[in-house]
Amino acid sequence: MASVDITREHDLGVAEAKKRAEPMLEDLRSSFGVSGTWEGDQFVITEPAKGSLDVTDTTVRVQVDLPLFLRPMKGLVESKINESLDQALTAPDTPPV
Questions:
Q1: Mean pLDDT of all residues in the chain?
Q2: Which of 33, 42, 59, 62 is deepest in the core (most CB within 10 A)?
């Protein structure tokens, strides 16, 4: 299987990183039909591929083993995950005082 393995560092803590991961997971649900469940600090991806999103105090790691029908879209999947992670983990701009 073709694999996607992307890690991002952050300084948000587990709770905030998990909260910010939700829009990314929703984006993957709408784009690729991803489904799964949270098991502690790990979102276990069950469909259409197998994988996980692991959250620690300092990192978020997405690992996905793409099935045959998604292999031609590996670049698109990686791009979508990278874009979503960047958006999710980047702190919003603080409004000027």
A1: 90
A2: 62
